[in-house]
Amino acid sequence: MVAPNATNRAIIDCLPASGERPEVVYRYAGDRFLLLEYGDMVLDLRMNFRIFGLNDAIAKAEIKGLVETVPALRSMLIHYDSLALSPKRLVDTLKKLEENLPSVENLTIPSRRVQLPLAFEDRHTKGDIERYVKYTRQDAPNIINGHNIEYIAQYNGLKDKAEVIEYICATQWWNACIGFWPGLPFMFPLDPRYAIVTPKYNPTRPWTVEGAVGIGGPCVAIYPVASPGGYQLFGRTIPIFDLQQRNPVFKENPILLKAADRVEWVPVSDEELEDIRARVHSGVYQYKVVAYEALNVKSYLQFLESVKDEVATFQKRQAEATKHVAVP
Q1: Whether residues 97 and 145 fall in one domain
Q2: What sign for the dihedral angle of Cα 114, 257, 198, 218?
């Protein structure tokens, strides 16, 4: 057991990087939780895939005293019964599992495919943005013609709103984790040729309608409840969280999405979305959730290699565009 860092007693232990395995840091997170972190604080879906591989290994190990695991982008929160399982024994077990974990490319991750309707530039997000201009910041550079979509286009070097919609619908969105608000997904494009990015609002927007969809940095999120928010909005979808469980999809869990889901967007009109939402609440709408498929990581990494030149071209286009666009 490595002695905790003298300047950071929250660290229980560290596992040095070895081969493809990044450094692993094990931290105290209160008296019943442990936080495991992989590598440097950078966006790399391979780290997220590894987290899911470890999560599967933990489940199969059936560790006595372990209550729950919460996988995230490059970390995992582990809830344990401190009366039945000591932090040292938990960390020792995790380190053994780490040593036997398959390489990332040999992982196959169970993954549902979820299709969600999306109304771009809908009336509700327009209303929230209009109030922001009126009451919070009249000179916000990210609001053009009453919405954020044209700003997203400018910031990424895209031609217009239509190309933004094309890019958002052209890729599946990998749900790396759930958190922050109940059921809120943090999603990233599996096809990096369509990896748009944006800065966030400044200051934060006081209002965001439930079901709003927006992007901050490279991450797309759905607002599960009405709340403040800083992501650039581009539309609205159907409920992904419902404590009233009005639709059969929420019968077992009021949260729709799970970590490792793949979301596909289906564009609809504002009027069509309102009709679908009414059918959701009446319980007659059937959510389009395809039961477990698998993400073959080796095949996915081969795909990334095959499109790397196209990705580099788009990233160059983005970098040039950002030089000429004001940041909020």
Answers
A1: no
A2: negative
Query: What counts of helices (H) and strands (E) characterise the chain?
Result: 8, 13
Supply the DSSP string of 58-92, one letter for each residue: HHHHT-TTEEEEEE-SSEEEEEE-TTTS-HHHHHH
CATH of the domain at 232: 2.40.100.10
Residues near 231 by Cβ (< 8 Å), separated by ≥ 6? Answer: 198, 200, 201, 214, 215, 216, 219, 221
User: Mean pLDDT per segment of 10 residues, for the chain of length 328 residues?
Assistant: 58 93 94 95 94 96 96 96 95 95 94 97 98 97 98 98 98 95 95 98 97 97 97 98 96 96 98 98 96 91 98 97 96
- State the Cα–Cα distance between residues 13 and 40, nearest whole angstrom: 16
Q: Which pTM does this prediction carry?
A: 0.93
CA dihedral (196, 52, 24, 300) positive or negative:
negative
Out of 50, 72, 102, a domain closes at 102
